[in-house]
Amino acid sequence: MLRVTFLGTGGSLPTRNRNPSAVMVNREGELILFDCGEGTQQQMMRAKTGMMSLSSIFISHFHADHFLGIPGLIQTMSFMGRKEPLVIYGPKHMQEFTELFRALGYFNLKYEIRGVELKPGDVVEGDGYVIRALKTEHSVPSLGYALVENMRPGRFNRERAIELGVPPGPLFAKLHRGEPVEVEGKVVRPEEVVGEPRPGRTIIYTGDTRPCEAVLEASRNADLLIHDGSFADEMADWAEESMHSTAGEVATLAKEAGVRQLVLTHISSRYSDDVEPIINDSKKIFENVIVAEDLMELEIPFRQE
Ligand SMILES: [Zn+2]
Ligand SMILES: [Zn+2]
């Protein structure tokens, strides 16, 4: 399972319908949070994502709309009896911010939190995937993230295996895992019945940024690109000045990268009643685009070969 839940999709300010930035990824039951704006823990409850299986938080940058939810969230998990350590990854000054979260208010944290500062190109190894930090372009030190699943075994050719005399059952699984098996004194090797390894899925989360090279490169053939789409193209000058992106700019990048699905988020409060301008500017260039809404969920399937 690879499920993405948009907990906060507003840009800079919360609005009636949009919380500040937070995106939850559930990968095979492990929860990974990208940014943690104010109110994220309540959004987790509303979306029923769960909270205690949260293994790590990846912060894109230290503007308040991307991290203010952390102090409340870590204290709630302590109240609820969390014992497992929590790692918070982020750009420059991540350790200092983690010390501030720990020191904020009277409470006794019952588990360990650890801040880990990442640089562009750094890789965090997960169980079955990696998360790579990407260089993004915002007004303060910032990072985007690419979640890349490990390669998975190739397709298993059942008919061929039976032809070679392998009985369906545990020996099939063994071959699929890449181990040779012996049937009636004859060895069957995995290459004979298992196809080429197939890529896993890739999700890119940019945080706040101008469209940029590292995101384009990381997004090539990605299954999902979640990009800063703060403004429609009418606000291009302001997008450039404030170091955000417009719908058209991101659609151009998504098209060039050949992503399967684009989601625009960090939607400016000026579009709180009507996101049509954002949708229109992006659809002109790239058809497969969604403007994120709070509590929206996406399942990311494997590609069909
Ligand atoms: Zn922001
Ligand atoms: Zn920002």
Short characterization:
By secondary structure, this protein is an alpha/beta fold. The chain has helices at residues 40-47, 64-67, 70-79, 94-103, 158-163, 170-176, 213-218, 236-241, 247-257, 276-283; strands spanning 2-8, 22-27, 30-34, 54-58, 86-90, 113-117, 123-125, 129-135, 143-149, 181-183, 186-188, 202-205, 224-228, 261-265, 289-291, 297-299. 25% of the residues lie in helices and 25% in strands.
Topology:
Blueprint: E1 2-8, E2 22-27, E3 30-34, H1 40-47, E4 54-58, H2 64-67, H3 70-79, E5 86-90, H4 94-103, E6 113-117, E7 123-125, E8 129-135, E9 143-149, H5 158-163, H6 170-176, E10 181-183, E11 186-188, E12 202-205, H7 213-218, E13 224-228, H8 236-241, H9 247-257, E14 261-265, H10 276-283, E15 289-291, E16 297-299
Parallel strand pairs: 3-4, 4-5, 5-6, 12-13, 13-14, 14-15
Antiparallel strand pairs: 1-2, 1-16, 2-3, 7-8, 8-9, 9-12, 10-11
Helix pairs in contact: 9-10
Sum up the structure in keywords.
305 residues; alpha/beta; 7-stranded mixed β-sheet; globular; binds zinc ion
Detailed description of the structure:
The chain has 305 residues and is α/β, with parallel strands linked by helices. The protein is built from 10 helices and 16 strands. The chain has helices spanning 40-47, 64-67, 70-79, 94-103, 158-163, 170-176, 213-218, 236-241, 247-257, 276-283; strands spanning 2-8, 22-27, 30-34, 54-58, 86-90, 113-117, 123-125, 129-135, 143-149, 181-183, 186-188, 202-205, 224-228, 261-265, 289-291, 297-299. Strands 6-5-4-3-2-1-16 form a 7-stranded mixed sheet, covered by helices on one side. The chain has a 7-stranded mixed sheet with strand order 7-8-9-12-13-14-15. Helix 9 packs parallel to helix 10 (276-283). The longest helix has 11 residues, at 247-257. The two termini are 18 Å apart. One zinc ion is lined by residues 61, 63, 138, 208.
